[in-house]
Amino acid sequence: MTFLHLSDLHLGKRLGEYELYEEQRAVLWEIVELCGARRPDAVLIAGDVYDKPVPTIEAVRLFDDFLGALCDLNIPVLIISGNHDSGERLGFASGLIRKSGVYIAGAFEGAPRCVTLQDDFGPVCFWLLPFLRPATVRAAFSALGLDTEGITDYTSAIRAAIGRATPDPAVRNVLVAHQFVTCRGHSPERCDSETLNAGGLDDVDLSVFDPYDYVALGHLHGPQRIGRDTARYAGSPLPYSVSEQNHRKSVCLVKMEQKGRTEIELVGLHPLRGVRTVRGSLEELCAPDFPGREPRGDYVLAQLRDEGAMQDPLARLRAVYPRLLGIELLRSGSGAAEFNAAALESARLDPMNALEEFFSGQLGRPMSRTQREIANSVFERLREEQT
Ligand SMILES: [Mn+2]
Asked: 188 with 296, same domain?
């Protein structure tokens, strides 16, 4: 059994003011071609298919075309919703299209959904777990009349949800999930295009997934393993922030033979355009021989070292870098520079960080776990209302 593990497509995502449909279409087609060449038995998409709960028309078309192309190749596609997706919308007509080999776990219905595929070594059970918050698990469990008492945080919620699966230890089991997974408190590598909670409240410990031969994760945008080789984030197929300029984007091609034998190959992707920073004075960046001018199509953040006033820097830079994401001033020693750095820093803060900073500044002690949980659930409710 060979399957391709991808995640975090974020179709419809914009980078600054730029739409990325061209890049997204190109990378999806690279994946379709890879499927044509390597013929995996399944494709797993571990959440964040779309960038928004109500995706744009273009994004829906793009995904429709992608699924159609995989169906034409007769490759089953197994999909879960991520925190950016609306599980209900993503799961529309899932009962009908499963007949075409497209399995979507959109909204959580109280237990992971199991899809079984066969090969010469027997069955492989794929357990599909959509993105979960503790509140989602509690609501689904109460609706089923199940006990919700022990569900207090992400780890206990995911443990309870997974506990409703019944993996047979004699066969191969694969879990598809979209959570922030840590291994014994060791935090994975993160980047700016992910939406995560602060304070470690959404951590799920890897031990929850112990019975699974492979854990196909989504949520983090840098490809990486967590604790063991067979628990992985595939990462996003494209760089979605400047902080990802050094990522090598890839998909995981997983080969499972008899139970206990799993081989993983990372297949590199080739994004149509890069995302990167260029650094220097305005004159340097605009000079015809400046090495950072190429490739001209890349998305570029200009970091300027100029100390004095500059003449029309945006227009001059745009003429050289048509996909300019913005300007950052690297002025040193002046009040303006400090202000600039502080403003940038606070813009990066999420509300939870800001509140924690305010709380400890006012009261001289950090927030307790209970206080963090209360504040976090308020922020989560606000986030849900906004989306
Ligand atoms: Mn994501």
From this structure: no
Distance 141 CA to ligand 1 centre (A): 26
Q: How far is the CA of 163 from the centre of ligand 1 (A)?
A: 25
Out of 251, 268, 285, pick the residue that ends a domain. 268
| Last-in-domain residue among 202, 234, 268 | 268
Centre of ligand 1 to C-alpha 192, Å, is 11
* Least confident interval from 139-148, 201-210, 234-243: 201-210
- 70 and 41 Cβ atoms separated by less than 8 Å: no
Residue 157 reports pLDDT greater than 80: yes
pLDDT tens column, 132-143:
999 999 999 999
DSSP assignment of 246-285, as one string? Answer: T---EEEEEEE-STT-EEEEEEE---SS-EEEEEE-HHHH
Task: Report the pLDDT averaged over residues 167-176.
Answer: 96
Task: Measure 84 CA to ligand 1 centroid, in angstroms.
Answer: 7
**Whether residue 328 sits in one domain with residue 236:** no
Does the structure show a pLDDT above 80 at 334? Answer: no
| pLDDT surpasses 70 at 333 | no
Residue 156: which residues within 8 A CB-CB, separation 6 or more? 134, 150
pTM: 0.84
How far apart are the CA of 218 and the centre of ligand 1, in A? Answer: 7
Return the CATH number at 223: 3.60.21.10
- In this structure, the answer to whether residues 72 and 191 fall within a common structural domain is yes
d(CA 176, CA 48): 12
Q: How far is the CA of 48 from the centre of ligand 1 (A)?
A: 5
Counting the structural domains of the chain, the total is 3
| Pairwise CA distance, residues 4 & 45, whole Å | 9
Decide if pLDDT at 188 tops 90.
Answer: no
Peptide bond into 291 cis (omega under 30): no
- 209 pLDDT higher than 60: yes
The pLDDT value given to residue 311: 84
DSSP state of 206: G
Answer yes or no: is pLDDT of 314 > 80: yes
Helices (DSSP H) in the chain: which residue ranges? 21-38, 57-72, 87-90, 94-97, 134-143, 154-163, 282-286, 313-320, 335-348, 351-363, 369-386
